[in-house]
Amino acid sequence: MKGLFVTIISDQLDLNKKQVIWGYEIQKDDGSTAKLTLDAKISVDDLKNSYHRDTINEWLRLSSIKLGLETKRSQNLVGAVFEIRQGYKSADSKRQNGDLLNAIRAYNKNLLPVMMVLSSQINAVVLKRYQTAQLLVLVGILNDDPTISTYAFCEKILNYSLEDFFRNNSSVISEEINNILESLLNP
């Protein structure tokens, strides 16, 4: 799913793969460094088309209001970084802490941290924790608000219909799932 979303961002906003990648380095306990990357990035400065810039800036503004960000932080946002998950049923504290660390790092670079969940499956406690930490969570629900719905974000901000994609490719997706299940059940 990560690859699909990266391709959608690249194609719809006319960005190259390098422009869509974002990461940072951390120092590990042993003194070595490790590079952590998030799944996708949209930087307003990388957008060549003024319509795309205006659309992303307006979405950043609306998202800031939704999260209750301070005006100064909101005005300083230069884009967004995305962590993409198919679903989020687990309440694994290690994963949550990693996501929240990513959010802090993103805000330090004036990027809005976004957790994009492609399904409607997300643990309610995790959702509340992320929202309290001002991490924007987009969930795979059919809704018109691009600050809460993955589908609305893709439709209204990226001008891409995920609903149509899944509808048009349902037989291929179903066949792939069946092949995977068959190979797992009949080794």
Strand order of the largest sheet: 3-4-5-6
What's the pLDDT, averaged over the residues? 90
Tally the helices: 9
Taken from the alpha-carbon principal axes, the silhouette is: globular
Spans of at least 5 consecutive residues whose pLDDT stays below 50 are: none
Number of strands: 6
Q: How many separate structural domains?
A: 1
Proportion of β residues? 15-25%
Q: Determine the fraction of residues in helical runs and give it as a percent range.
A: 40-55%
Major sheet size, sense and barrel closure: 4 strands, mixed
Q: What is the radius of gyration computed over CA atoms, rounded to a whole number of angstroms?
A: 17 Å
N/C terminus separation: 25 Å
The secondary-structure class comes to alpha/beta
Helices and strands, in N-to-C order? HHEEEHHEHEHEHHH
Oligomer: single chain
Which features would summarize this protein structure in a list?
187 residues; alpha/beta; four-stranded mixed beta sheet; 9 helices; 6 strands; 51% helix
